[in-house]
Amino acid sequence: MPSALNTSSASHSDCLIVGGGVFGLSIARACLGAGMSVTLVDKQEIGQGASYGLLGALLPHMSERWNEKKEFQFNALKNLSDVKVELEEEVGLSIGYDRCGRVVPLGTANLRERHEVRSKEAETLWHGAETGYYHKVMPQDDLGGWLNADLCSEGYAFDNFSARANPRAYCEAAKASVIKRGGRVLENAEVIDIKDLGEGAEIVLGNGDWLSAGIVVLSAGYKSFAMIEALTGMTELGQGVKGQALIAHVGQKPGLPILYDRTVYVVPHDDGVCAIGSTTEEVWEDEHSTDERCDEIWAKALNLCPMLEGAEVLQRWAGIRPKAEKRDPMVGFLPGSSSIYIATGGFKIGFGLAHAIAQVSVERLAKLQPTLKLPESFEMAYHLDGKAWGKH
Question: Strand, coil or helix: what is 41?
Answer without folding.
Answer: strand
